[in-house]
Amino acid sequence: MTSAPIIRFHGASGTVTGSCFLVENDGTRVLVDCGMFQGSKSEKELNYRSFPFEPTSIEAVILTHAHIDHSGLLPKLAKVGYDGPIFATRGTIDLCSVMLPDSAHIQESEVEQLNRRNQRRGRDTVEPIYTAEDAARAVTLMRTVELERWQQAAEGIRFRFWNAGHLLGSASVEMEIDTPVKRLRVLFSGDIGPSHKLLQFDPEAPEGFDYVICESTYGDTDRDDVSDQTRRAALKAEVKAATNINGALLIPSFAVERTQELLADLVYLMKTGAIATCPIVIDSPLATRASEIFRRHSRELENGRMLAEAMEARNVRFTETVEQSKAIDHMHGFHIVIAASGMCDAGRIRHRLKNWLWREEATVLLVGYQAAGTLGRILEDGAQTVRIQGDEITVRARIRRLDIYSGHADGPELAAWVKERLPITSGVFLVHGEEAALAGLGERLSAFLPLERIFIPRLDSAFELTPFRPADISEIRAPRIDPARPGHKDWHNDLQSLVLDLQDELKRAGDDKARGVILRRLRRALSE
Known about the structure:
By secondary structure, this protein is α/β, with parallel strands linked by helices. The protein has helices at residues 41-44, 68-71, 74-79, 90-121, 132-140, 228-242, 258-271, 285-296, 304-311, 322-327, 349-356, 375-380, 411-419, 435-445, 491-508, 512-527, and strands spanning 6-9, 21-25, 28-32, 60-62, 86-88, 142-144, 151-154, 157-163, 171-178, 183-188, 209-215, 248-252, 280-283, 316-318, 335-339, 362-366, 385-388, 391-394, 398-401, 424-431, 454-455, 461-465, 470-472. The strands form 4 sheets. The protein has an 8-stranded mixed sheet with strand order 6-5-4-3-2-1-22-23. A hairpin with a 4-residue loop joins strand 22 (461-465) and strand 23. Helix 4 runs antiparallel to helix 5. The radius of gyration is 24 Å and the shape is globular. The termini are far apart.
């Protein structure tokens, strides 16, 4: 061995999605996660570009959990030549077996629709990032690893999983790397769950590391203390406020775990008489299949029996076919629809929003993190008009936010998790967070860690993991994306906002003459 190990941050750096970390040691290369970028179109474009590493040079992939922002590019990795093992827990593999094919189906469907529009506009057609066949190939590469059992990933690199408390099968990764000086101990947090998760036990991990790579999604957030009672009381209040005989409560939700938690609590509230019983529609084939997986793993889950019973409730309906989904729009009386995706960027929730956003009797309840540039974030930020599938929709529905169901620990919980890992001798890297969250968690950690040991890497940056402190060895090359763009709105969002503002101005103009003045001013501005 001739040099210290190197870690390269190829995702979830300055942004919350695209988790992907490459560990190199004496010619050996191991990948931790290979997630899809979500958020603005600029970030999503990274999914279509070549990987910033040679896929066939990777000896192993270690997957922390099944969420698409951590697993979503594994089919692409297999598509371009990777054929090594993908190590994961049994729960993660079971979920990936439905989530990755679903991701491929969504891409193929959306690309088919886009190509029809492109052909009408005389534009070039595009291809999906990967297909269902690629997704199936990736699943066949997965190898089960039990929690807390050491596994050799590659020569000189071994690891073991610890429960991360975030999702069925989610894990933190304890890694040991052999170096000429010492055996380096590194911990990847994965996504850390909060203490109030309905279906997950609290996260666990050992102490005493050289380096910790920690997620920071809610690093600047302090939530109130949460219990089952306070969580259900908050949901009860939202349902009661949304109840309207001619209305609907729409809940954009991540199909895996968030949907199951909401379903269990809603049925509990109805069974106990806290809220009136009404139809609950799970409008997501993925959520239906994932719910069955949760049922099979119910003995491993906290409150697993409660979820299994909720799935059997008479007022709960699961849609499978497109026809069943379309029929929801013809339902009468107040009802609750839980549909993917959680950030409103794809899936059936967009059809439900298109049908209900313009109605005052509707309520949209956001129950998860909304990445910058997504439709969910735009609604959360108070947009009065949005565009969905090319149509302009006026927002008259009540837009509400309930963060109590988040799958991520908040700032104090993350800081406490890191503190329990002490001593940390060389450095902590903060990832998987937007700018404010990264800064917020860094400030919290500075209470018990020297500032010079806290690092916030940028996308594609690289560090040599010396026994004392990391050395930044990032290459000077054109970035895959403007370093200021991850975690922010992009020009696509700005253009959409400009078009909507222009339409509003034209509507408010008194007559055609006034509208002509506005358009002439715009043309002059464009010609300057």
